[in-house]
Structure formats: structure tokens, C-alpha cells
Specification:
- The chain is 38% helix and 4% strand.
- The mean pLDDT is 91.
- By secondary structure, the protein is mainly alpha-helical.
- The longest helix has 20 residues.
- It contains three helices and two strands; from the N terminus they run H-H-H-E-E.
């Protein structure tokens, strides 16, 4: 793979809607080229027979118990709401 040139970096910055100064372009070109080289090296690795993992460590996620921690205060909140109809909060229309 050839290193990225200044024109390519400027095009990438434009597509990403990033404003970069002219003096920063060589640094961006070098860093982006290094990233693309790393991706190219990773793509070259034979992963046949390797099971995809969601996490590199073989661990189980600790989750808290799914328990109700607050009481139902719907009636209270709807009583102080500006506008309610059939149990729904009414809000001003914002999209035509």
C-alpha cells in the first residue's frame, strides 16, 4: 500500500467534515497511512477456524438483578403535568 498524499488527506478531511490546517496535513497523512498499514496486516492474518469473540477475555458479565427499585408514581406525575389525555402526556406539535 502506498502512503496517503496531501490531496487524499484533504479529500478525507472534507468527507469527514473536518477542518485541518495545512501544516497538519503531513502528520495526518503519516498517521492515517500507519492505521491503514495496520489494517492491511490484520487482514493478511489467516483466521480460518478462529471463533469470533465479543471480548478478548473469557469472562461472564456480572449483571445486577432486574428488580423494581421505585414505586409507581404515574398518577402523581400526571396530576402535575400541564396536559394529559387518556394517560398520555400531551406536548406541542413540533413537526408539521
Amino acid at each position: 500500500m502506498m502512503p496517503l498524499g496531501t490531496a487524499e488527506v484533504a479529500k478525507i478531511a472534507h468527507l469527514a467534515r473536518l477542518a485541518i490546517r495545512e501544516e497538519e496535513v503531513p502528520d495526518y497523512a503519516r498517521n492515517l497511512s500507519a492505521i491503514l498499514e495496520l489494517v492491511e496486516q490484520m487482514n493478511a492474518v489467516d483466521t480460518t477456524g478462529v471463533t469470533p469473540m465479543a471480548h478478548p477475555l473469557d469472562m461472564v458479565q456480572r449483571l445486577r438483578a432486574d428488580e423494581i427499585s421505585e414505586s409507581n408514581q404515574r398518577e402523581h406525575f400526571q396530576a402535575i403535568a400541564p396536559r394529559v389525555d387518556a394517560g398520555l402526556y400531551l406536548v406541542p406539535k413540533v413537526i408539521e
